Write the structure tokens for this entry.
Amino acid sequence: MKYRLISVILLIMFIGLCLIGCNDENTEYVEKVVTPQSPNSTPSNIQTVSPISEEDIHITQGIELLINGQPDEAIVSLTKAIESDPSLASAYEVRAQAYLRKGDGSLALADCNRAIELDPALATAYNKRGFAYEILGNTQAALADFQKVLTLTEDAQVMQMARDAIQRLSAGPSSSQSNTQAMSCNTNSDYNQGLQSLINGQPDEAIAYFTKAIVTDPSLACAYELRAQAYLRKGDGSLALADCNRAIELDPTLATAYNKRGFAYEILGNTQAALADFQKVLTLTEDAQVMQMARDAIQRLSAK
């Protein structure tokens, strides 16, 4: 019952329908009539349905918050679900979506890895992991995950999303500069160790590795960008802003750097500059996750 309920909730989120909020009645037992009742019917015709569990309520609330463009609040709710039941692959998967909305590919990747460990057949977790790898610049790993999706599901929406990503990634970077950057980052050992440190939730260690990568090759826009992500993880908007500026100087088409700079400006209280960067993102990429991240930020900031 619990896993069927979670599957239904996730399907509702995926196709973008409105969810009905949880209320106190969700914790009460309800009686369901299994067969038409007559005046002489016996109690055996009535089936008692178990109450919705605490973790299911947290997952539902997390999904609602995501739909409403509140990834931080969603992460809090989904973390409560995981603390209540660490075996819930769906909770890790949805929390990964929230991290993707925030542009944090490393934490999204870690949650997708855990979701897949718990449920190796969870196609949507591979889809999200593909987007996480893409944000982190690992095109080959992203392609492998999107290809895997096509072997695990017959859901038309999920398959189309994977096919679109495969087509986009197979077309390659939009410029030779981006192609050179991607190759340089993927072959730089300090960059890769920094990425792993980010995934492991060690921003200070990640900063040290990315700094080594930059010393080795000061032209690595990707190293500046992910060092900015590490600074954002620490709440340091000023250092994140400086690294994003340098990444954009090195690669003016790097949409994810504008996204991170938008978050840095937001931390620093510069709403107009943040909005400008998130708007810029929409002109630089067709990546669905990156664009959704920017749209969510625009909606959130415009409401202030």
